[in-house]
Amino acid sequence: MGLSRREFIKRTAALTAASYVGLELPFSMQKEAKAADVDKWVRGSCRLCGVGCRLDLGVKNGKAVALRGVPESRTNLGYLCMKGMLFYKLMGHPDRLTKPLYREKKTDSFKEISWDEALDIAAKKFAGAVTAYGNDSVAYYGSGQALTEETYLFQKVMRGGLQTNNVEGNPRLCMASAVGGYLTSFGADEPIGSYSDIEKSHCFFIVGSNMAEAHPVIFRRLMRRKLDNPDKVKVINVDPRVSPTSRIADMHMQFKPGTDLAILNAMAYVIVNEKLYDEKFINDYAVFRVGKEKKQVDLAAYKKFLEDYTPEKAAAICGGNITPEKIRTAAHWFAKSPATMSLWTMGVNQRKRGVWANNLIHNLHILTGQLLKPGADSFSLTGQPNACGGVREGGGLCHILPGHRLVKIEKLRNQVEQAWGIPKGRIPPKPGYHTVAMFEAINAGKIKAIWINCTSPAQSMPNADKYRKGMSREDCFIVVTDIFPTKTTELANLVLPTAFHFEKTGVYGCTERRSQLTPKAIDPPKGAKPEVWIVREWALRLAKELNDPVIKQCVAPFIGKEEGYELPKAIWDEYTQKLTKNRDNDLRGATYDVLKTMPDGVQWPAPTEDFAKKGGTVKKFVRGIDPIADKEAKDDKPYQFYGPAHKDRKLWIWLRPYKGPAEAPDAEYPFYLSTGRIIDHWHTTSMTGRIPELMRANPYAYVEVNPVDAKKLGIKPGDMVEVESRRGKNILPAKVYEGPIEGMVFVYWHDMHEDRMINRVTKDAYDPGSKEPEFKICACRIKRVSGPKPLKPYIVR
Amino acid sequence: MKRRWKYCCSALVWAGVLSLCTLSFAEKGTSVISKVSQAANAAIKAVTQETHPEVSEQEKLMPCFECHKEATPDIEKEWYNSRHGIANVKCYQCHGTFENMEKEPSDDRCYVCHAGAKNHTKPGKACWECHPAHNFPVKKK
Q1: What was the pLDDT predicted at A36?
Q2: Is the peptide bond before A605 cis (omega within 30 degrees of 0)?
Q3: Is residue B44 pLDDT above 90, yes or no?
Q4: What is the CATH architecture of A101-174+386-564?
Q5: Is A78 close to B115, i.e. CB distance below 8 A?
Q6: For residue A610, what is the DSSP state?
Q7: Rounded to whole angstroms, how far apart are CA atoms A450 and A475?
Q8: ipTM confidence
Q9: Which of B92, B99, B108 lies closest to A35 in CB terms?
Q10: Domain segments of chain A: what residues?
Q11: pTM over 0.90
C-alpha cells in the first residue's frame, strides 16, 4: 500500500524543509564510465549476498569502472541486482582506509603508523595477552565475506599457533541454525540440491525469507518459473510480514511471529493423517527420533506426537490469517506437487528454536520424499558470499575445523595437526567461545586481545549497546581489518587497511556448495594489503615474540610467496588437497587452474580435476551424480547418506514441539519487533552507503507499522516513532502499510545512525543448539514522538 | 515506441512534479516562492536537455517511484507490474541517478544484466524498440 497523495505531499513538505538547512551527503559523486569503455574484463564473483552471482569487472587504466553479469553462469544467468551492478564504485572510493591507524587508548585519537609498527604492535599485544592471561584470552572474529584463504589462515594461526579455538565469525549470526538443521536431519551440512532445481520445481515453499530483497537474483529465477508457468507452479509464502517476495505467492500464510513451528508440525499432521507421505522413501531412508538422547521411535509415536498440532489447534496458536483449511491446502500442495522446493533464511535461522524450525522443514521433505529428485530440495539460502565456503567449510567457527571436522573429536584434530605438520595435541580439545559468549567474555574482561576481520559487530550484534560497552574497555585490545571506517573501527585500537576482493585473489563458496575464484584485477589503494599477507607477517612476529617455532610452522609453507596470487593459491592448495581430502566437501579437483577455466566455479564434492571440470556435484547423495555416493555406497539403493554426523546413514525425522520466542509481547511491551534487509543495502551500509544510487534509494531505516496499529496510536506516514525494548530504543520515521501483521513492527537493520540502529533494541537470546541469536523476534512498545522530520543519511567516516 | 518515453516525460508531466513541489514549498511560506521559480526554470531547462528537473539534495533521497507514482503514474504502474517491477529492478538501475541520468538509457545499461541478448540485437535498433519500456515483453511485437 503506497502513500496517498495527501500523505505524499506532507512527506515532501517535510523533506523539502530539510533542503534549506544544508545537507552534506556522505559520498562524493564521480563521473561514471560507460560500461563498454574498458581495457579488459576480469571475471569474478559478487560479494553482496550469498547467491554467488558471477560478473565481469571492467578495468580501465588500472581502475575499476564497470560491472556486468556473466550469462553462462549457472548461478545468476547473467542477471545482477543493483548492488552487483555498482560495487565497482567502492574500489577507488576516497573513504578507503589506506594507512594503519593506532591509538594506545580508545579515548585517544588515531595516529597513522607504518605497517612494520602496526604488525609489531599487533604481535606484542596478542603475545602479551597469551603470556599473561593464557591462550584463551585472545580471539578472532571473522566474516562470511572474507575469502576462504583468509578465514583458513586466520584460524590456522589461532588454533595451531596460539592454541585457542576462540575462532568465530558473523555466520554464527545468520547460518548456524541451518548448519544445525542439516547436520541433525540429513547428517551433513549444506544443501543437497542446487539452484538448478528452481527451473524443475512445481511448488515453492518460501518460509522466513524475503528473498526478493535479500537474494534478488535467485528470486528472479523463481519469479520467472512462476510467471512462465502460472498454473503449473504453486508458491506458498510463510511469513508474518507481507514482503516483496509475497508478490509471486499463490498463498501467503501470515501468523504471529514465532508460531511457525506449529504450522510446520500441523502440515506434517495433515501429511501423516491423510497418508500423503511416501512410505517407501521413509522405510528406505528415514528414522524418527526424539529428544537430546536422539531416541529412535516409530511412525505411530510420531503420529501421536502430532496430535497436538491438528490444523485447528495450530490455527488457534498462530492467529493471523492461518486457518485449518489453509494449512491443509499448503500440505496438499507441498506433498502432491511433482517436485517441491523449500527456501528459507533468517526468519527461520535467527530464532531461539532455529534448529528445530530447520528440522521441521526438513521433516516435510523427508516425509513426502520431496528430496533428491530434480526440482525437489530443502534449500537454505545463505546470507553471505562465503559463509558456506570460508566459514562452514574452512573452519571459521569455534567448534569446527576445516573440512567439516568437529573440534571435540580427537581423531579429527589429529588429522588437521598432521596436515599442518604441527605436534599432535597442539589444537586444544575444547571448542572456543561462540559469538555471544565471545562478546560476553569481552564484557567480563576475559578476552584481552581480539582481531575483528571484515565485519562490524558493534552494529551487527543484537543488543548492541551491551557489547559495545565491553568493546570500549581499555583492557581489551581490538584490531580491526577492513576497507572502510565502521562502527567497529570506532572502538578499535589498531585499524589495518585491507584490499577489496578483485584487489586480491581468492575463493568464495556460495549457497549451493559452489566455489568460485575471483582473481586480482587491480591493485589495492596504496597502503592497503590483502589479509593473507597481514596474517602471515603477523604470525612470523608472533613466533618471535612467544619464541614458539610452531607458530612459524603454521605459515612456513607460505613464506616468500607473492601476495596477490601465489600466496592465496598456496593456501587454497593446502586447504583443498590436505584438509578436504576424503571429506564430504572434497574440493581437491577445484584447483585454481580448474576454477580459472569455469565460468561459474565448481560444486563439491569434486574429488578430481576431471570431475570438477564438468562442474562438480549438482545433487549430493545421489548415485551416478555424486562420486562420493558411488564410492561410499553400502547397498544398491540410489541414495546414499554418507554424511559424517549420522552413523546410521539415515535421514532423521524429528519430533520437535512448538516453542515460542524468548521474549513475547506483554502489557508493558505489547508489540513484536522484527528486523530484516532491504534490497539496496548490504549489512551495515559501510559499503552500500557509499554508493550514491544505493544510499539515495534507501537513505534511512524506517519502522513499518500496520495501518490498524498506526490508527490506534495516531501514527501517520513519515511521523517519527519511538521503538523501545527492555534494552534500548530507536526513533525512526514510520512507513504505514499492510506489511507486518497487526501487533508487529518491522525495522530494516542497515542504518548506522545511533537513533536508527535497530540492534540497540533487538534481543541477544540465542538458540541453545546453534547459539544463533533471535534477531527476528523480541517485544517492544512504540509511540509517536512527532510529525515528519528532515533526516540525514549517515555513515561513519 | 521510440517516442514513448519522450511523450511520457514531456514538460506537461514535469509540470506535475513541479506542482507538487510548489505545494510543498508553499507550505513553508512565501520566502521559498522564489526558489520554486528557480526550480521551475531549472526544470524547464532540464527538460530541454533531457535530464531530470532540478530537485533539492533532500528530495533526491526519495525513492524515484514515490514522485513518479504521481508524476508519471502510467509508467510507474507499467513498471510495477512488469518483471522488472516484481524483481525489484529499480528506476536508477536503467536510468542512473541524478548526476548520470539517461532518460533513454543506452543499450550498455541493458547489457549489464542482459549481455547474452547482445547477440540478437539488430544494428541501429535500441533494445526497447522491440521490448518496449517499461513492461519489456520478451516476445517481439
Answers
A1: 58
A2: yes
A3: no
A4: 3-Layer(aba) Sandwich (3.40)
A5: yes
A6: H
A7: 11
A8: 0.90
A9: B108
A10: 1-31+661-797, 40-90, 101-174+386-564, 183-381, 585-634
A11: yes
